[in-house]
Amino acid sequence: MRMEFFSRMKAAGVITLMTMMISLHQIYSSSAQECPSTHDLLNSLRQVEKMLAVHETSYQQSLRSLKKKISTLHNSTMAVFKIASCPKPDPPAHGRRLGRVFGIGHEVHFLCKSGYELIGPRTRVCLESLKWSGQQPMCRHLNSTANSLPSFSPASPSSSASSSSSFPASAALSASSSATSLSHQSPTSSSPSSSVRPSHCTHFLGSTRCTCDVGFTISGRDNNICTDIDECHLFPLGQPGLLCVHQCVNTPGSFHCICPSGYDLTRDGRGCTDIDECENRMHNCTADQLCVNTYGGFQCVTVECPRLKNATYIKTSSMRCERNPCMLGDKPCTQAPNSISFHFLSVVSNMSAPRILFRVSAARVLGDTLRFGLAGGRGRGHFSVQRSGRQTGTLLLVTPIKGPATLEAEVEMSELEHNTLLGRYLTKVTLFVSPYEF
């Protein structure tokens, strides 16, 4: 593009110089016969000056056009569009992950190799908080559970920590009993409880193999006791491989998850999904109040128009108040906001930032300038307002907020004409932050 531009400029310069030479040649040709008059010389010089002025204007216009094209090309090649996505999840040891797209709403699936079972969710979803639902699963060897079948291969001693163990048959067994498979409950040293029970032993060909039910591990000096595996202790809260989003309750041979009030268990029995009390009419808000669903609960809010000393307002909708007309010359009244809108948002605790919360736009513009800014509110340090278009401002959350908390932000849009205020429009945004991160 630059070479084409300079080629054009060069050609234009050559044409201009040729024109000037022809004009001067005409002057000097006439001077060979007779001296040109001062008037002729001035006319010739004015023609040359006009041609130079036209050439300079054309050059400046072409230069501005070139700079604009170069700037557009530069911006288009330098722009980088980032797609919001969750971090790449690792496949579990002795397993693999299915799925290569990690954007919001996409799923990944997990499988274990033969001989292993999956502990944790089989499917995880990328949430709007840019975190994966559930927790990182793991693959556990089947030999550590009771669903492994008895082995009739030659026995060899193994560690007592294993849930399946083989050891030589007791000397009290007769030769005839060694040829027949016999099963019995191994005695326990104490009365069995919900977390401790006898193992299941099988005698065959001079060897004995003991196993436990699913969710138990074999223990005891003679491998005759099965002790419950505390899955909740193996995968504590806040650690990778967490079994439950909120709370894990260990049960004999298994576990189950519970959610806080205001949530339901997800289909996999491990996650928690918010109950919309407002949608399901499970709230106690009055007819004059507005029900706002929050993560784990709801809020009953009352929208009232402000009572100012210099201006009065009337409610034109459930979420908007407009100023009554001002008296002629009443400057304090005209400087009050023309309208006040109310909006309520719900977010989870420690939501990632920066994040767009709300957009304010002007339906029509009467003046030549629109200005956006924060006018007030509780927790202003967590918010920022940026212009995102000619008629649009954006409210941003700039720092994460740990719940529970209730914050407010007042976004002001001012309309001006030649720096004279034409009107102010106020948007009050209330943010309800949940005590939970889900």
UniProtKB/TrEMBL annotation:
A Pfam family per the record: Sushi
Chief location of this protein within or outside the cell: secreted
Transmembrane segments: none
Subcellular location: Secreted, Extracellular space, Extracellular matrix
Gene transcribed to yield this protein: LOC102205210
InterPro entries, A to Z: cEGF, ECM_structural_protein, EGF, EGF-like_Ca-bd_dom, EGF-type_Asp/Asn_hydroxyl_site, EGF_Ca-bd_CS, Fibulin_C, Growth_fac_rcpt_cys_sf
Cysteine pairs bridged by disulfides in the record: 112-139
Signal sequence interval, chain numbering: 1-32
Name of the protein this chain belongs to: Fibulin-7-like
